[in-house]
Amino acid sequence: MKIRDLIIIGAGPAGMSAGIYAARSALSPLIIESQMPGGQVALTDFIENYPAFPNGMSGQELTKLMEEQCNNFNVEFMNFIQVDFVEKENKIFKLKTNQGDFFAKTVIVATGASPAELGIPGEREFKGRGVSYCATCDGPLFKDKDILVVGGGDSAVQEAIYLSKFVSSLKIVHRRDKLRARKMLQEKAIKNPKIDILWNSNLLEIKGKDLVERVVIFNNKTNQKREIRIDGVFMYVGFKPSSSLVRNLVEMDKLGRIITDHKMRTSTTGLFAAGDVRNTPLRQVVTAVSDGAIAAISAEEYLEYELKQ
Ligand code: NAP
User: Fold this and answer.
1) CATH number corresponding to 131-235
2) 20 to 30 A Cα–Cα from 136, which one of 61, 128, 268, 293?
């Protein structure tokens, strides 16, 4: 049984930043990732607010650079391994995965978050057949089509602007009369001739035969329902933290986000959390990489001073 100093779960920006810092502290970190390195941000078309890149870049380009930097520091990656559960026994963490057990003295959970479902009839039925949670992946499939984007936050508005390049028309369906998204994004969307905003509106149902054909929209001010013809629906109604693997080990808030202190320590000693999986006040790449760096240094301090006591 090989017991590693540190295992990082998740190879998004938080996990890869933790990997870089941990490698520089000679902890020989292993990053276990359920897919390929990159995380949710790798699905983002354009990032314009990450410092040091004045012309912006795609999420995929940015995370590829992070991966390259990890490789330069000999961070070890194991991809396509799903960690189902983390346990702690006699100061050692056991990670139960679909490819056997892994053991470590300290663990950083950087599993991020996944897109939330709206939970309406037709949503699951038409997932992949007109219902999508990823504009970068599926946008080009909707060339010259009419689509809906649900939500009023940064993701909905930013991805609507991106999708408008392909589609014939796009309606943002938002439940209130004010968008939550940043002003700069709002202004771009409002100026965009292909984008129309349906205010005070809820998407109630998605209908069709093989593919999405129609949706039912409810105006919560006038209490009127109407059915419109549509080819695709992109959901951006928030994210849910991927924290279930440590549900029996750490304290979480009511949204399921892992509660940490400023050193990224969770309620279990030796277990740290970084990025969107924790109760962060700002969900950005820049905060995720900062969390990852802090978590790695805290893990190093734990190994050096606390574990030996
Ligand atoms: P978000 O900020 O939580 O927004 C979710 C949106 O979905 C809100 O407009 C919300 O409506 C709506 N919504 C939630 N549940 C709903 C329901 N059941 N029915 C109808 N509408 C519902 O999520 P996000 O836009 O994915 O952003 C997540 C985080 O990532 C944020 O911190 C954001 O700033 C960050 N982010 C940043 C950028 C960027 O900097 N460029 C890009 C993307 C994301 P209400 O407004 O009425 O609550």
Assistant:
1) 3.50.50.60
2) 293
| 137 given a catalytic annotation | yes
**How far apart are the two ends of the chain, measured CA to CA in Å?**
23
Q: Is 3.50.50.60 the CATH number for 3-115+239-306?
A: yes
132 lines ligand 1 (CB under 6 A): no
**Delimiting residues of CATH 3.50.50.60 domain(s) in the chain:** 3-115+239-306, 131-235
Task: Note the pLDDT tens digit of each residue in 17-51.
Answer: 999 999 999 999 999 999 999 999 998 888 989 99
Is 138 among the residues known to form the active site? yes
**Closest to 138 (Cα-Cα) out of 229, 212, 234, 215:** 234
| Sign of the CA dihedral with 185 first, then 187, 191, and 194 last | positive
Kindly report, residue by residue over 128-139, the tens digit of the pLDDT. 999 999 998 899
Q: Which string of b and e fits 206-222 if b means at least 16 CB within 10 Å? A: bebeeebeebbbbeeee
Average pLDDT over residues 216-235: 98
Pocket test for ligand 1, best of 180, 219, 221 (most atoms within 8 A of CB): 180
Residue 18 near residue 271 (C-beta atoms within 8 A): no
Instruction: Find residue 300's DSSP bridge partners.
Output: none
* Ligand 1 atom at minimum distance from 48 CA: 41
Q: Which atom of ligand 1 is nearest to the CA of 178?
A: 46
